[in-house]
Write a structure and sequence with these properties.
binds 1-O-pyrophosphono-5-O-phosphono-alpha-D-ribofuranose, single chain, six-stranded mixed sheet, 35% helix, elongated, alpha/beta
């Protein structure tokens, strides 16, 4: 096993700020700042190798050990329940998981509620706790379109600024939980590379939220 710590970073908005956090914590990687077509980026001096993956795939890379650690949203962790250690709330990517619907929507409890979402497990659990009969419509993006076009009654989705809801005449009807990005670790890696992983956790913890 390589001595480098393999880090799965979520591609996109969250990933850029996550990398900046690692860099500020002492794990800068000049290669990643000029990526070209490369997929992995190493800085042997800092003992790290990074790679970008789809945010919803970070937990899989870490669970399977392809990455030792990674950063994934609490939304993804609750949806996929990966068998990993959650080490730290890194305080980035703050948003909430919410039920949203057109302003005029009122729930008629005798009808099956049509729920469009990327987070089928989260939505099922929420409504089963309420004893509410639902039909899940699993989508992969642009969830807000579903109630506008009559595909669903409500959506269960991430709300960050609320701009997408406002601009589409939707509003939050209830909040399920707060979301933020978490540092996660593969269980075997955490046994064998505990010292290095704990050092990364310590350095990030010292600067997060600054
Ligand atoms: C997410 C989410 C909402 C939007 C919320 O979508 O699904 O659509 O961000 O952000 P806001 O409250 O700041 O408007 P994302 O950008 O990940 O794209 P998606 O359509 O592929 O889900």
């Amino acid at each position: 096993m390589s001595d480098l710590i393999n880090v799965a970073l979520p591609k996109g908005r969250l990933g850029d700020s996550v990398y900046e956090l690692f860099a500020a914590a002492g794990y800068r990687c000049p290669e990643i700042e000029n990526p070209g077509r490369r997929l992995t980026f190493e800085n042997p001096e800092a003992d790290v190798r990074y790679f970008w993956v789809k945010p919803s795939d970070v937990a899989i890379y870490v669970e399977k050990g392809a990455a030792d650690i990674g950063v994934a949203g609490k939304d993804i962790l609750l949806e996929y329940q990966p068998d990993v250690y959650e080490l730290l709330d890194v305080g980035l990517g703050r948003c909430k998981m919410a039920v949203a619907a057109p302003k005029e929507f009122t729930d008629e409890r005798e009808k099956t509620l049509k729920v469009a979402t990327k987070f089928a497990n989260v939505a099922k659990k929420y409504y089963s706790q309420l004893g509410r009969d639902i039909e899940i419509i699993k989508l992969n993006g642009s969830i807000e379109l579903a109630p506008i076009l009559g595909l669903s009654d409500v959506i269960v989705d991430i709300v960050e600024t609320g701009a997408t809801l406002r601009q589409n005449n939707l509003e939050v009807k209830s909040t399920l939980f707060e979301v933020s990005a978490r540092l996660i670790a593969n269980k075997a890696s955490y046994r064998f590379k505990r010292e290095k992983i704990n050092e990364i956790k310590k350095q990030i913890s010292a600067i997060k939220g600054e």
